[in-house]
Amino acid sequence: MKKTLLALAIASYVTPIFADDKKTNDDDIEHITIISHGNKLRTESGSATLLSEVELEKYEYDDIHRILAKVPGVNIREEDGYGLRPNIGFRGVTPERSKKVTILEDGVLIGPAPYSAAAAYYFPVTTRMTAVEVFKGPAAIKHGPQTVAGALNMVTRQVPFELTAGLDLATGSDGYHKAHGFFGTEVAKNVGVLVEAVRLQADGFKEIDNGGDSGFKKNDFLFKTKYLLDGEQFDQSFELKLSYADENSDETYLGLTEADFKENPYRRYAASQPANMDTEHTQFMFTHNLSSDVFSMTTRLYRNDYERAWRKLGKLTGSNASLSDIMTDPLYYEREYNVISGQQNSVEAGFNTMFLVMGTNDREYYSQGLQVDADYNFSLFNIDHQLSFGVRYHEDEIERKHFEEKYAMTDGFALRTEEAKKFTTQNIENTEALSIYLEDTVKFGDLTVSAGVRGEDMDMFYTDTVDKDDWQRKSTTIWLPGVSGFYQLTENAGV
């Protein structure tokens, strides 16, 4: 079982002390969860799947790939074995870095720059989520910009209004350790707070030639405070959410030759020793909810900042062969293969001089916006309607500051040379987007019909920060309609 990640929970403790019924009522607290509770028959448009807290706690997976494995219509491509940078696709779209799926946390876009650079190099720690929601087809009309494939929403722990605490400790093979704890309580009348922290780490299950780290360390901290205000006509809630996360992982893009993979699929070549991903993520979110028996409106103001630096082998100097060429035909490119695998020095008498070029993709992102979502239930001509509508102004940006450094393979170790780093890519991409949606759900006896439309208007900008004359601007407007019907056959079945 050496190569299998095994987690053994050695401590888990949760203490709830219930306050009055009003404060523990789901309608008062659970404003973020979008679809109905698990014991009700699904009547949502299209495909909507809810993984509840009970289901998530059954296995306590840290890897979103394993969590989504039971959801129909989800295609996944593994990369690092720990789900650090997931590759998720819905309805047949490419899973590459989950860039064709709208990823949300508490109903808000959580990707580093969902419009300007959709690749999801940041992904929330799933062990602290209390629900995961998957929307496909017409059910995704409310979510964008990747509306066609669908949306994935992860729900964080709600602020409790009674003393609640939990501790989850786990250990496993390959140096796996997890420490997850939370504490929440009411600190004043109608004011609750929540503090939560997670530490994940592992030594990695891959073996690097001549030694080296192939594992990761992740930290995640969450703080929430919430104030409930009861009114004669409307109830209100105000919530502030602050979070911080960082990661340091020794991951690589460098693969293996077919022969080496068959001999040992967990091997990594010596040239991948310096490979490293270093990230930092912060989030601010303020949420206001106004609700009555027939109307609910949620306003969210949010800001996400993300920084990452990923160092990995890009190429070899002194050779015309790409890394792919070398991996495909190591016999023809014997010298290059021996350097990468550490069997030969890159600077050696009688052989052409080669250097390992390590490219560091250094990037800074931000994502911010204001989002309003509302629901209104009413009857017209004796027909029940549930009208949902929303608007969001969003802005995000990616700044690329990529550079290269030269390393020499010396006695099986990749060592950095004294040559100065060379910048290769320096640019900024920015997007300003306005999106709206409108959806009406109508009931005719046992038949539920939903029809809606989503509009996205985007202004996108590109600027090379070195060559100021290299810039682009483009605008796109798109309307995405959706319609569905659901007929309830019995209390527990429908089509």
What is the count of DSSP helices, taking H or I runs of 4+ residues? 7
Number of domains: 1
In the CATH hierarchy, what is the architecture at level 2?
Answer: Beta Barrel
**Topology-level CATH name:** Maltoporin, Chain A
CATH class: Mainly Beta
Fourth-tier CATH superfamily name? TonB-dependent receptor, beta-barrel domain
Helix percent reads under 10%
Structure summary, number of beta strands:
24
Structural class: mainly beta
Global geometry: elongated
Q: What is the arithmetic mean of pLDDT?
A: 90
Query: What is Rg?
Result: 25 Å
Instruction: Please give the alpha-carbon distance between the first and last residues.
Output: 44 Å
Biggest beta sheet attributes: 15 strands, antiparallel
Unreliable stretches, pLDDT < 50, 5 or more residues? 1-40
Strand residue content: over 45%
